Every structure is written in C-alpha cells, then in structure tokens.
Amino acid sequence: MIRTTASIILFAALGGAAFAQPEVMAWGNLTGFRVDGHLLEMSTSMCVAQPEMAGVSCTGREKQQNSYSRNGKVETVKIQMRAPREFRDALGAGWSMNATEVVEDTGPASGRIDLEFTSPEDANIGGAFLGLELPASVFSGGSVQLVEPDPATAGQTSLAAGVAEQNEYVRAMAKGARFISRTRQIEVTFAEPTLVIVRDDRRKGSYNLQVLFAVLMGKTTAGQTAKKSFAFKVTGEIDKNPVEITLDAAHPGRLFDGMGGNFRLQNARTDAQVIDYSLENIRVAWGRVEMPWSIWQPEENSDPLAAARAGNVNPRVAQAMEMARRLAQKGMPVIVSAWQAPAWAVLGATGRGGAGFAGGRGAAPGAPTPAGAAPAGAGRGAMPPQQTGPRGNPLNPEKMGRIKESIAAYLLFLKEKYGVEPAMFTFNESDLGINVRQTPREHDELIKTLGAYFAVKGLATKLALGDTSDANPIGFIQPALHDPEAAKYIAAVDFHSWRGCTDEILAQWRDAARELNVPLIVAEGSTDAAAYRYPQIFSEQSFALYEINLYLRILSIAQPESILQWQFTADYSVLAGGGIFGDTGPLRPTRRFWNLKQLASTPPRSFSLPVACDKQPNLTCAAFGDIADGIYTVHIVNNGAARTATLTGFPPTVKQLRLWVTDAERGMKETDHVPVNDGKAQVVLAATSYTTVVSGN
User: Fold this and answer.
1) What is the CATH number of the domain that holds 632?
2) Whether pLDDT at 684 is above 80
3) How many domains does the chain contain in total?
4) Is 2 inside a domain boundary?
5) Which has the minimum average pLDDT: 8-22, 37-51, 76-90, 425-439?
6) Distance spanning both ends of the chain, measured CA to CA
7) Rounded-to-integer distance, Cα 608 and Cα 624, Å
8) Angle value at C-alpha 435, between 429 and 436, nearest 5 degrees
C-alpha cells in the first residue's frame, strides 16, 4: 500500500530546482532550457577537433574526468579530456585538454556559458570548440542566420537536408547565430567575432546538425589558454496539450515485488544513518550485499570456514554478514555479490578495481569533496574515462577447486552463524571486469561449476545469469541462456541500468527471463556510474527526473521483479546532510528519496500491466495491478509543462483514485481524491512531476 511518513520534508533538490532554467549535465553538456517545465531541447558539449577537422571528440557521460558544483544560479563544470584511442592511432600522438565551463541562468529560457580551454601540453589539434547539436527533427528544413557575418554573404543559409555523407552549411566569422525552425529559435551571441561552423556528419550515424563555435584554434603550446562567453536565448512552442493514458487491466504480465536496494558497506562513519532511515521509511523488497572475498580468504592454503567457526572473523566480513542478516530478518531475498577476488584466485596482478584499473563507484561520501581514492575494498565500478586494455582479472582455472570451496564456505558460515541462505550469488559486472573478468563462455561454465557445488554442500543458493555492467551486453548471457545444464542453477536473469539502453534491448532481457521462467532483476539501478565524483548532481532536478524516468521505462518494457537502487547507503546517497559528502546539515530526504519511496509503495503482489502513453513524448508511465485485492496503480512522470491527463481502462469496480505527487516543492504528498466513472478519470499532472494514482477508498 502507499504509505507516507509522518511529515513531508522539503528536500535538498528544492534549492536548485526553483530557478533551474538551463539543464546542465554533470559533464558540462546542456540538454536545453526549461520554460514552464517544458524542455526546449538542444545539446551543447565541449569539443576538440583533429587537424583539418577530420574528427571531433566531445564531452559526454563517462568520456572524461569531470567535476560539478552549483552556487545559486551558477553551475560550474571542470573537465580533463584526452584523445580517444582512434584519434591517437590516426595522429600517431595524442592530446589532452582541460576546460572550465561556467553556466549561469540569466532569465527565462536564457543563459550564459563562459568556457575556458587550457592546453596542458603541446598538441597538434584543429581547435577547441563549444559544440551545439540541433535535433534534425526540429531544425532540418530551417535556417541559420549569422549576426554581423564576415563575409556578409554568409548572412542566412538554409538547413535543408543534405545529400552527401558530410554536409557543411556554414563556415564564417560572426558575432552570433540564430537557428530558426517552424517551432523553435535558438540565438547564440558572442562579444567578438568567432568562427562558426554548421554541418552534419552522416559518417558518424547522426542526422542531427552539428554547430561548432571556436574558442581555441590550431596547434597549441603547453599552458596556452583561451576563453569566450556565449549568451543563449531560446524560444519555442510549449506543449501543454491534454494527454490520454490507457490502462489494460485484463492482461497482467510478470510480478513486481517492489523496489530493492544495495547495501554494500563502504563508509563506516556515514552508512548506518542512511541504511536506518531507508529501511524505516521505504518498503524494500530485495537486498544485495557484498561478499568481501579477498578478506574472507586472503591466503590460498588457509581454512576460512574453520577460522570463522573458531571465532576468527575479520570485522569487515562480520559487518557484511550482519547486513545480510538484517535484510533477511525483514523477509527480503538477499543477493550476495563478490567484487574483489583474492590474489591467489585470479590471473595477473591485482589492485583495487583489478588489473589496469583504479578507483570506481564508491569514493568516500563522508569526505568534504569527492575523495580521490575510495576506502579499502571500495569501488562500484565506474569506467575511468579513456580506459585502455581489459579491466579486472580472470579467475585462475587451475584454482577452480579452491575457488568453489572458498565461496561455498562463506555461504555456509553465513547460513550457520547468521541464518541467511542467499537467493543467489554473483560476480559483480564480470562482463566488464569489475573486478573479476569473464568471457560469456566462462560465465556459463562458472554457473554450472558453482551451482553444482553449492547443491552438493546443501545450499539452496543459485547463480544470477548476467549481473552485467549495463543492459547493452546482452550477448554475455547467450551461452548460459541456451545451456540446459546451466539453466538448472540460474535463479534470475540480472543486469544493471547504467549507461542507457534501447527499448529493444530491454525487451531482450525480458524475453531471456521468460525463456528460463525465472525473475528478471535489475541488481543496480541508477543512471550515472561516475556520479560519486561530483555528488552535488544528486540534488539536481534533472538527475532525479532521469532516474525515475529510467525506472518506469524499465518496469513497463522489461517487467523486472525488482530494481535494486544503488545504494541505500551513503554511497550515491538518496539522503543529504549528516556529513555525507561534507554536508553537515541535518539528515534529510532528497527528491530522489521521495521518488523511490513513491515507487516502492506500489502494493505488494502487483503484476505489471500494459499501459499506453508512449505516444506522449513528455510522459513515461508504468502500471500494476494487485488483481486479488482489486488495487490498480499507475505511475506517471510528466517531463514537461503542467497538463491534464485522462486515465482510462480501470475495471468497473474502481470508483476512486488516490494521488501522490513528488515535484520541486512536494515529497510524495497526497492530494485530493479523484472520482472514476465508467473506468475513466481526469487528473492534473504538475510540471516536471512524478504522480502515482492508486485505486481505493
């Protein structure tokens, strides 16, 4: 059932959302400007070009080192870029570039970007630019109008679709540019004449229009800097049209147990308060904990089970096991995952994050700023920008006997001492090597090896198929998916939600779970694996919206049994204050907390239901039905302006809806009840809000 805490607390995101007109990603890319909640889309980036403009490398998620901060209406992003491998190969030498971007909200649908590039060393480049990508769906067929162009003949140019693989529409000096379409206009002005390049590049698979505003041109010398200021003004149509959402209550899909959480202990000073608050205020249906394997058995010839039975247990091992017991006592299935392997169990030199890898998700949230190094054993697995070579370490096949004994011994002691028999065991993100690396075939063989051995030892624990770093490596699960011997030991199909995915990929994960007739689990849920490095982003409206949008999309298409939030600890915390990341204010929920609580309050025993809102570009929806008790739930994220929604398809027994809303000012606040007549009801969706409707009295 939907439940709320005794009082509604204004959350940390409120301060940033009140004037958040430019929407800035933590790596510096603007996604657009919001007007009345509606996002007038565009996309900026910081770009470095090869000589002769043969290729352009631009900022993006996990593509560079970056930091993020906000001070009132001003957001600052600092980056360190390096040439991608293909550029280094083509040039025979690489380049590096640092940049500081300051974005200021200067009024409705307007803002200023101050961008400074610094070349830390001599570099053979074509230039450094502020990039602007214009969606072809809006601007193709429009025009660009230069302000004070040189030559004057470059005044206005059509943006009609080109026919070549690469089409250059404009290359001229000017003091500004206006990009005009039927529904939108973007104006960018500069204080001094600046090179403006407008082109598309279909060789890169994009039909969007790329605009480059020069900041630094040609080869650079060590220490060379250049800075320019860009003023943006965006106008366009604001979509406030009413929408219709249609529920299909007659065709239930797979069961949704509810939201789960990760409880990997990494921060002794700040974890406990977040764990306590989360477990007391959110219905958590699944839990995932760490097996500190490298600490459990650091020496191959030791007997960790005998030592543990004699009372000699490392405190970190005991804490991880106690965390598992606490979750099991609440009645939730528990997943045990191993990150770091002992050196004797793998091939190659080991270190935090595996061979050739340092750091990762899990830097110390108790630190005033994101720590440069995580505590011992930490590191969730963010990919370092420009990482080359394989990550992690393969298991040593000659040690497989000792490996299965060691892992089984851990699970046996967890059962004997703490009364927990995990639902499943995984190696975290072994497709990527965080920190154990496997091939798809090795993953298949390990499932059979460990699964059979667990059974011999009397353990009901099985294996998860996948536990992949994100949804995209669907090929990683194929050998085991089609191996009948492995299928006997698979408890669930499992992926993580980092780095985005297509609807088609999500459907493939759904179908894989159906093929094996096991649950689908999203064992790590969130959107930005590197966000621990710039934790102020957690309080931004954009981060909260993208996260809850992703969850509803996954639930609607893939129909997982649970999505396990990363994390319900101080790492990627859904709470602010209490010393987390240097915030010494009182412990308090953020907008992300209320989003998760609202989603987690879906009534138990609810099945996924088809719901049609995909033709509404600003809406994301998921629906559920507790058919036995006649309770129907629809979750709706409105990513745009306020609008009226007509909900249809409720069974005749439904006479009334209760509504809860989370937005910039409310945290899971219940509003007025809404009548349902002949299966139809009307609700008002606030701008950039998350609304949940539940049938009941």
Assistant:
1) 2.60.40.1180
2) yes
3) 3
4) no
5) 8-22
6) 12
7) 5
8) 80
Among the listed ranges 7-16, 118-127, 531-540, which one has the minimum average pLDDT value?
7-16
Backbone φ and ψ of 212, nearest 5°: -125, 125
Cβ-Cβ contacts under 8 Å for 428 (sequence gap 6 or more): 337, 338, 339, 381, 434, 435, 436, 467
Distance of CA 160 to the CA centre of its chain: 35
Contact 48, 115 (CB under 8 A): no
Collect contacts of 654-657 with beta carbons under 8 A, ≥24 apart. 654/630, 654/679, 654/695, 656/695, 656/696, 656/697, 657/681, 657/683, 657/693, 657/694, 657/695, 657/696
Average pLDDT of the residues in 39-55: 90
Q: Are 545 and 511 within one domain?
A: yes
The pLDDT tens digits of the residues spanning 320-351 come to 999 999 999 999 999 999 999 999 999 998 86
Instruction: Report the 10 Å Cβ neighbour count for 579.
Output: 18
The answer to whether residues 40 and 68 belong to one domain is yes
Give the chain's largest Cα–Cα span. Answer: 87
For 22-126, strand residue ranges (E) read 22-24, 30-35, 38-41, 43-49, 56-58, 65-71, 74-82, 96-107, 110-119
Name the residue range of residue 207's domain.
14-236
Is residue 513 pLDDT above 60, yes or no? yes
What does the pLDDT read at residue 373?
A: 29
* Residue 637 shares a structural domain with residue 526: no
Cα–Cα distances in Å, from 199 out to 162, 233, 554? Answer: 9, 21, 35
List strand residue ranges (DSSP E) for 485-605, in order: 490-498, 520-525, 562-565, 575-576, 588-589
Write out the two tokens for 408: 């089984």
Tokens for 627?
A: 């058919």
Sheet of strand 22-24, all strands in order from the earlier edge strand to the far edge = 22-24, 30-35, 38-41
pLDDT, position 85: 75
Close Cβ partners of 575 (under 8 Å, ≥ 6 residues apart): 273, 274, 277, 278, 587, 588, 589, 590, 593
Residues facing residue 243 across a β-bridge: 645
**Residue bearing tokens 């099985």:** 462
**592/617 same-domain check:** no
Bridge partners of residue 170, in order along the sequence: 198
User: Mean pLDDT across the chain, nearest whole number?
Assistant: 89
pLDDT at 389: 60
What local confidence, expressed as pLDDT, does residue 350 receive?
A: 82
pLDDT band at 176 (very low <50, low <70, confident <90, very high): very high
State the DSSP code for 343: G
Alpha helices in 211-314 (DSSP H): 271-281, 293-296, 304-309
Tracing tokens 């039909």 back to the chain, one arrives at 207
Query: What mean pLDDT is predicted for residues 203-214?
Result: 79
- Write down the pLDDT at residue 164: 66
* CATH number (domain holding residue 265): 3.20.20.80
264 and 344 in one domain? yes
**Coarse DSSP helix, strand, coil percentages of the chain, rounded to the nearest 5 percent:** 25, 35, 40
Please give the Cα distance from 82 to 86 (Å, whole number): 11
The residue among 224, 217, 211, 220 whose CA lies nearest residue 179 is 211
In DSSP notation, 246-258 reads EE-TTS--SEE--
Q: How large is the C-alpha radius of gyration of the chain?
A: 26
Do residues 448 and 485 make contact, with C-beta atoms less than 8 angstroms apart?
yes
Nearest-angstrom CA–CA distance, 213 and 304: 61
Residue listed under structure tokens 């500081």 = 100
Cα–Cα distance, 187 to 189 (Å, whole number): 7
pLDDT for 635 equals 98
Q: Where are the beta strands (DSSP E) in 241-371?
A: 243-247, 255-256, 260-262, 287-291, 334-338
Phi, psi (deg, nearest 5) at residue 278? -65, -45
Is position 170 within any domain? yes
DSSP 3-state assignment of 312?
A: coil
